[in-house]
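DM from R.C. (forwarded with permission)

"hey, sorry to bug you on a friday — could you get me a structure for this? deadline for the figure draft is monday and I only need the backbone to look sensible"
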Amino acid sequence: MPIQPYLFFNGRCEEAITFYRKALGAEVEMMMRYKESPEPMPPGTLPPGFDNKVMHATLRIGADGVVMASDGMGDTAPGFQGFSLSITATDAAHADRMFAALADGGQVRMPLAKTFWSPRFGMVADRFGVIWMVTMAP
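My reply, with the result:
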C-alpha cells in the first residue's frame, strides 16, 4: 500500500506546481480548483478570492513518485516541519540538476556531496520550505 505525501501551500499551490514541473519534470495528473468542485463549498469556508485556488492536484514525479497538493482552505500555516521528501537520481548529472533546481530560491541544508552510503547526497529546503533529500543510488 503506497503512502503519498499531501502538501498544503496556503495559496501558493499553482506556483509550486509550476516550480516542480520545471525543477523535477513533474507531470500534473489531475488538478481541480475550488470553483470546479461538483459540490459548492459551504458559505464562509474559504477566504475571499480562493475560488480559483487549487482544491486538489496530483503530481507524478518520475515513474512511480506521487505527491498530492492543495492550497488548503486558507487556514494552514506556511512552512513544512518534521519530514523530508526523498528523491533518487539516476546518475550524478541528474542529481546535480535536481539539487540545483530545488535550491533555486531555497536554502541548502547539506551540500550535495559523496557520502558513505551514496555517490551523491544532499538536503535542500526549496522556496516553499519543503525539505528534499536528493540521493543517487550506489
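R.C.: lifesaver. The first strand starts at residue 6 and ends at 8.
me: no worries. Residues 23 and 101 are 5 Å apart (CA to CA).
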